[in-house]
């Protein structure tokens, strides 16, 4: 399936990592990672840093699946507000999930510092706008529960919102712990780093079609008839992980994104914050280092790629209108537009860890709008599991919570 279509900005901005290395012979490795996007790259990094030999397999050109279509925003805030998530999964799990997401942003920054990969990682504030009076009441509840659990947050009333961010709205929550980056540059940079430093093998254009459990792990069968023997598997293939799952655990959604022509930096909004809203589906926006504006949203349930793609032209107009409602004095001229498919869960949390009964098959499924921060968590949890280190986040993000 085509995971995205249109002109994805990151593929245009960066030189394509034109790596071609299909698996041509049978192969053996300790850990086989399926998927070369940001999730697979972070898992590979954590395993290589721990001295665990691994190999990444992808049926496409490296990192050209969902990672190429990501808007690459990093927030500790999860698609489901904390006050609502507590009702869904309980206070202990919900609060732990939010704190883990907060920590993951700093952990990712440390990864880039240690590897000297430079994916335009930049700390910026996050502004969570009330879309209407109902949204304002939600933010008032959310503010209190975040303060109770010592999560970074400030409340901006309508006057403060206009004075500090030039937005004429009902109010907002603000924190200074968010970040943004170039997801494609991060994924390819980490993979290149570990290829150069040993411990990692990378196979492109190699589709794992089937697998069977063995006494010591798994044997994988590729589309070219090659066999891969491994002690452990890590599935980091997003919603395409479905063929490895005994049952469906996610919903598929079509989403749309635009990027503007470059503008004078003086025209951009204050602090170049990440901005999103309480409406569902929510609209969101960020800037780029070359002074463009990136906006997205207009999510609809996914049916098929053809229907998703036919809606693109109409969605462009709707997204431009939503931007103009927030900043009517800033000229947004669309330069590129794309649409993609992503997965989400009912409680807003990812699925990380092994499926019950399959202790050598790990899943790193960072579903939802926080996929990148969830991917950092997944990489650490899986590394710890392989090293015999207890990680309490397994209980927060594991498959067992489906029964809650």
From TrEMBL:
Q: Where is the FAD dependent oxidoreductase domain?
A: 30-382
Alphabetical list of Gene3D superfamilies matching this protein:
D-Amino Acid Oxidase, subunit A, domain 2, FAD/NAD(P)-binding domain
Xref: Pfam families = DAO (PF01266)
Q: Output a single Gene Ontology CC term carried by this record.
A: cytoplasm
InterPro entries assigned:
FAD-dep_OxRdtase, FAD/NAD-bd_sf
Q: State the source organism's domain of life.
A: Bacteria
The record's annotation in PANTHER family points to:
PUTATIBE OXIDOREDUCTASE (PTHR13847:SF201), SARCOSINE DEHYDROGENASE-RELATED (PTHR13847)
- Its recorded name reads Oxidoreductase
Q: What lineage, starting at the top, does this entry show?
A: Bacteria, Pseudomonadati, Bacteroidota, Sphingobacteriia, Sphingobacteriales
């Amino acid at each position: 399936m085509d995971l995205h279509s249109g002109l994805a900005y990151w593929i245009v901005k960066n030189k394509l990592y034109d790596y071609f290395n299909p698996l041509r012979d049978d192969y053996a490795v300790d850990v086989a990672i399926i998927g070369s996007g940001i999730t697979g790259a972070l898992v590979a990094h954590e395993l290589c840093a721990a001295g665990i030999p691994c190999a990444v397999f992808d049926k496409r050109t490296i990192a050209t699946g969902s990672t190429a279509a990501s808007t690459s925003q990093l927030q500790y805030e999860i698609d489901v507000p904390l006050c609502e998530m507590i009702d869904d999964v309980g206070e202990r799990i919900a609060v732990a999930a939010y704190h883990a997401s907060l920590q993951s942003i700093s952990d990712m920054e440390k990864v880039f510092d240690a590897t000297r990969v430079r994916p335009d990682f930049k700390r910026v504030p996050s502004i969570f706008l009330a879309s209407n009076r109902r949204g304002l009441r939600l933010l008032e509840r959310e503010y209190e529960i975040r303060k109770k659990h010592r999560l970074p947050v400030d409340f901006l009333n309508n006057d403060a919102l206009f004075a500090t961010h030039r937005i004429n709205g009902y109010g907002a929550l603000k924190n200074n712990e968010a970040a943004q980056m170039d997801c494609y540059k991060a994924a390819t940079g980490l993979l290149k780093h570990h290829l150069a430093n040993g411990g990692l093998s990378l196979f492109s254009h190699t589709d794992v079609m089937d697998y069977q459990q063995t006494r010591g792990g798994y044997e994988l069968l590729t589309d070219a008839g090659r066999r891969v023997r491994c002690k452990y598997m890590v599935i980091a293939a997003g919603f395409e992980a479905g063929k490895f799952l005994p049952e469906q655990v996610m919903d598929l959604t079509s989403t749309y994104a635009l990027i503007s022509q470059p503008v004078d930096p003086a025209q951009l909004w204050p602090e170049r914050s990440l901005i999103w809203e309480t409406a569902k589906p929510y609209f969101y926006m960020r800037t780029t280092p070359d002074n463009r504006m990136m906006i997205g949203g207009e999510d609809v349930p996914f049916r098929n790629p053809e229907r998703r793609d036919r809606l693109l032209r109409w969605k462009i107009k709707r997204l431009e209108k939503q931007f103009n409602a927030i900043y009517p004095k800033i000229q947004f001229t669309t330069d590129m537009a794309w649409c993609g498919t992503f997965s989400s869960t009912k409680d807003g949390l990812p699925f990380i860890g092994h499926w019950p009964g399959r202790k050598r098959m790990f899943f790193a499924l960072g579903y939802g709008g926080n996929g990148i921060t969830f991917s950092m968590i997944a990489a650490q949890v899986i590394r710890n599991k392989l090293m015999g280190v207890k990680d309490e986040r397994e209980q927060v993000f594991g498959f067992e919570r489906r029964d809650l």
